[in-house]
Design brief:
alpha/beta
Amino acid sequence: MNEAARQQMITQQVRAGSVLDAEVLQVMAEVPRERFVPQAFRRLAFADTAVPLPGGQEMLTPQVAGRILQALAIGKADRILEIGTGSGFLTACLARLGAQVTSLEIRHELADAARRALHDTSSSNCEVLAQDAFAWQPPGTFDCIAVTGSLPLPDTHFQEWLAPGGRMFVVVGQPPAMEAWLLKREAHGAILGTSLFETCLPPLDHAPRPDSFTF
């Protein structure tokens, strides 16, 4: 039953979202998504929906997860930073594509659950840190950065952590108009941005927000 639903997810959601990279499709088919879904919502593991997580959070839909993986064009030697672990499913996919993943999750409950799921699915080349990304100091730079929550306002904070040639996926804006971007650091240091698609993600905790209008 799970295998049929998994293949349907790949063909009818991920591929339908213009995710055609063969390696990405294979990884998403191999990582057992149902192992990262809270028990109460296991029936929704392969559905085209943002599955609820503790703390009012939600999983990325399969299509958005696939688009992130494809956009980052991850290489086997890449050092990857994920900002917002959530369930850990995207973390596991990133780990299979790259060399090492560091994932930051501000909510301890989510971090603990993701660590268990990653251990149970033999995802050994990744670590989950219970950290606020806006307060964390990285030990170095990264080849890929996946920001899984949105930034209500453009912010260059995480761009500084990109190595030359590095790529970052980030969603910027406020509902209902948010835009996914791929940012690349050129060898000489300049950041080039490419608009990818429109989507809507919950904002990162502590992300800068516009001032509220008052009379």
